[in-house]
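Appendix B. Extra example for self-study. Work through it before the problem class; the solution is given directly after the inputs so you can check yourself.
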Amino acid sequence: MENYIDRKYVLELFNAYQQYSGRVILNDISLRIRKGEFVTIVGPTGCGKSTMLRMVLGSERPSKGIVTMDEHLIKRPDRRRGIVFQKYSLFDFMNVRDNVTFGLELEHFNMEDHYLQKIFPFLYRKKMKQFYEEADRFLDKVGLLQHAYKFPHQLSGGQRQRVAIAQAMIMKPQILLMDEPLGALDVGTREAMQIFIHDLWIQTEQTILFITHDLEEAIFMGTRLIVLSQYYKNGGEDGSRIVEDIKIPWPQPRPTTIKHTQQFNEIMEGIRHAGLDPTHLHDINEFNIQHEDALCSVRKFGE
Amino acid sequence: MQTKPNKRALFSRWSTIKSMDPFIHTVVLIMVFLVLAFFVRKVNLKWASDVLNWPTYIFQKSNFLSIVFELIYAYYFIRVVRFIIRKLKHSVRFLFIKDTREGSFVRPRNLPGSVWEVSKKIGGWIANLPGKIWEGIKSIGRWIVSLPGKTWGLIKGIGRWIASLPVNTWGVFRRLPRFFSGELVGLGKEFLEMIRNFYRLRTTPGRRISLVLSLILFLVCIKLYYNTSVERHAENSQDKLVPTGEQLWNGFKKTIFEVNIKEKYDANGEVINNNLPKTFREALDRDKHALAEGKFENKWKMWMNGVTHDYLKQGESLLWLDTKASGMRILIAMVFIFAGIYVGLFMGAFPYAEKVLYRFVLFFDKIPALAVLPILFIVFGLGETAKIALIVIGVAPTIILDTYLKVKEVHDEQLVKGMTMGASQPEIVFRIIFPQIIPKVLDTVRLNFKAVILFLIAGEALAAEAGIGYRIFVVRRYMDMATIFPYVVWISVLAFIVDMVFRTWISKKYQWLNKQ
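Solution. C-alpha cells for the complete assembly:
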C-alpha cells in the first residue's frame, strides 16, 4: 500500500485554467495522480474545488490547458470515473438494490432488453440473479443488506451516502470522485463514514479523489493532501492555485486517535495558516509543494 | 504491488454504440399513427395487408394529412425493420466471440475468435439448446403452477379481511345510541370552539364541525332550488324550467332505462308497428302479469324470454349511447395527449429539439382552441376527426409544456451519474428522466381532464350524432331540464371517477413521490 511511486499515473492535469464569463476560477492547475492513491482536496469556500472535480469528471472542459486520463483527453463523463455527490446521487424511483444493480443493467442490457424483461421476466432471470448477487455483495460491504428493499427516502443521510458509494463502486471505475459526500452529515455519522470509506479504500485499492471543506477529515483520510486557495499575493491575478501539496505521513490503517496527536495538530495549524486564512496574504514563493508527484506549478511573480 | 487491470473498462466503449432503438416506444407511436390514419381515411384497416401496401395508399389518397401521416408511419415501419435486422445480426455475432475471462458473467462482444473457438462455441450453443428450451419450459410451467397458489392467496386475503370485521353485530347496534349521543356532545363542544376561534389564523377545526361546515353551502343551494321550484309550480303547474323532484326522477328513469327505439319503415314509407311496449315500465308490467298467469316457470325464464328482454334488445339506453360516443372521443384524444408527453420529454431533454419546438408549442398554446373550431370543422368535416382535433389542440400544448418544465427540473447530477454508469443517451432519457417525471405529468393530465371535457362538449354542441354534450344541447331546445340535470350529474360523476382512478394510481404506484 505504501509505495505509490512505482505505479503509473492515472490522472493528469497540465496547466488547466477555468473561467466563467471572464472571471478566472482555476489558475494554472497542474497535477498528476498515481493509481491507488487517496487524494483529498481542501480549500476555502468558492475556491473551485467542485469546478476542478467537474473538469476531471468531464462535465466541464477547461478553458485552457488539458485534463487527461490514461493519456487520453477527458471529453465527457463516462463509466471509467465514478462519482458520489453530496446530494441527488440516488434515483428516488428505485429501491436500494435496484439502485445498485442499475449500473450493471445499463451496461449489459440494451434498451429493448429492459422492456422485453418487463414482458418476459423469465428470459432474464438468470442474468438478473447474477446482478443481484453482485449487488448484495456490495450492499453487504457497506452494511445495508437488510435495507435492500427500502427506498432512498426511507434511509438516513449516512445510509444514503453508503448506498451511493456502493452504486458507484459496483461499476469498478478507475477513479472514484467524491464531492463533499459527508458534507450534510452530523459529527458522529461523519466519523463513522470516514472510517468506513477509508477501510473500503484499503480493501479495494481504488483510486479516490475526495473533496471536502473539513481540514481534519482531509488529513485523516488521504495519503496525499492538496490545498486549493485563492488567498495569495499574485500581482492582480485571480483564481485558485494549488498552494499546498503534501504527503500524509501516517501508515495505514489509521486509528481515529491520531486526530489528537501533537503532529496532527501541527500539520493542521500549518495548513490552516498557509491556505485557509484570508488575512494572511503570503508570497507565491512560499508554497509548500513537497510531494514527489507535484508538478512545478509555481510561477514566480514577474516571470 | 500491481493492481489488476480493469477488464470491464475494455468493453466500456460498447455502452456508447449500443443500439439506439427504444423498441416499445416505437411500437406505441406506430399505434398512435395507425389510429390517426384510421380516422383520416375512414376505411377499415386490414393490418397485415396495409403494412405491406403502404406505398399504394399514399398515391391512392389525395388527402394531404393522410400522406403526412403515412410518411411518418413509413418512417417508423422502416425503423422497426432495421431494428429487427440489427437484433438478428447482434444475436448471431456472439457466436464469433471468445470469452477471455473465466467465471465472468460479462459477455465480451468485440473480440474475434479463431475458427476452432468459434466452432466450439457453436457446438456448445447447439448442445446447450435443448437444456435452454427445457429451462424455458420449466420456468413457464413453474409460473403456471404458481397461479393456483396466487389465487388461493387472494382468497385467503379476502377471508382474513372478512374475519377482521366485527363479529358482534348486535353489540354494534346496541352501542349506536351511545355513539350518536357522544358525537352530538362532541359537535356541541366543537361548535363552541368554533365561535371562540372563528377569526383565528392557526386553529384546527374538529372532525364533526368540519363535516357540518362543508355541507352548509350544498344545503343552502338545495334549499334555494327547492323554494324556487315550489314558487314557479304554484304559478304554473306545467313549468319545465325548474323541475320538481318527481320530474327529475322521471327524467333520470327516462334517460337511463328507456331504450332509444329506432323506427323501422316499410316500402311505402310508413312506420312498421310492432306490438312491443313503448316504455320499460309497461314491458315489466306485462311480464309480471304473464308470470302471474303461469306463462313462465320462474323469474329467470321471465327475464330471459319475456317482453322486457325484447324491449331492451331493440336499442340502447340513451345515456349509455351518448356515454359510449363521448368516451370513444375522449379515449382517442387521450392517446394523442399521451403522445404529447413524449414530445415534451424530447423537448426538455435534447436542447436542439427544444430550439425547434419550444417557441412553436408556446405560440400554439396561446391560440384559443375554440376560436379555431370553425376552421377545424371546415378542414376535417363534421366527423369525429374535428372533435378529437379540437380536444387535442386545446389540451396537448399544456401537457407538452408541463412535461418540458418537469424535465428541466430534473437535477443535472442525475444525468451525470447516469453517464458515469454507462448509460447511452436514450437510456438517460427513458430510464432516468422519464420515470422521475411521469407521476408529476400524470397529475397534470388528471387536472387537465376538465379541459378535455370542456372541449368535448364544445365540439359536440356544434355537430354530432350522439354524445353527452350533443344531447344536452339538443334537449335545451325543448327546455327539458329533467334530462339535462341527469346528464350534468353523470358527466361530473364520470370525471370524478377518472380523477380518483388517476389519484389512486399515482399515490399507490409512485410512493416515493414528494418524499425526498
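Self-check: Residues 261 and 315 of chain B are 6 Å apart (CA to CA). If your reasoning did not lead you there, revisit section 3.
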